[in-house]
Amino acid sequence: MQLWGVLALVFVLLIAVFAVQNAVPVDIHFLMWTFPGVSLVIVIFASALAGALIVVFLGILGFFKNRRKRAKEARDQQSAVAKTAGGGEGGTPEKEGGHAAGPGKTGPGA
Fold this sequence. Notes:
Blueprint: H1 2-21, E1 25-30, E2 33-39, H2 40-84
Antiparallel strand pairs: 1-2
Helix pairs in contact: 1-2
């Protein structure tokens, strides 16, 4: 995990150096809007921040999706264990004592 932190720090440093070296005013045209004379530093940092927020948002969505999937798998596994232990539906027709309680059978459970 520390490697990712170091790599992220290096990446941010490279973005900062690039932005400072290219600190010229630019005109931004987006859909119907025009923003004249915006510093390129602001554009670069805003773009990097938007990308980071998208990555974080998608990571959070993936985390909750995986957590929900693991919880469902745990419930399914508990249900399967309960069924195989005789606590669920579809158990064997045998009663206590090992005798089946079917037609034509005699015994204490019939």
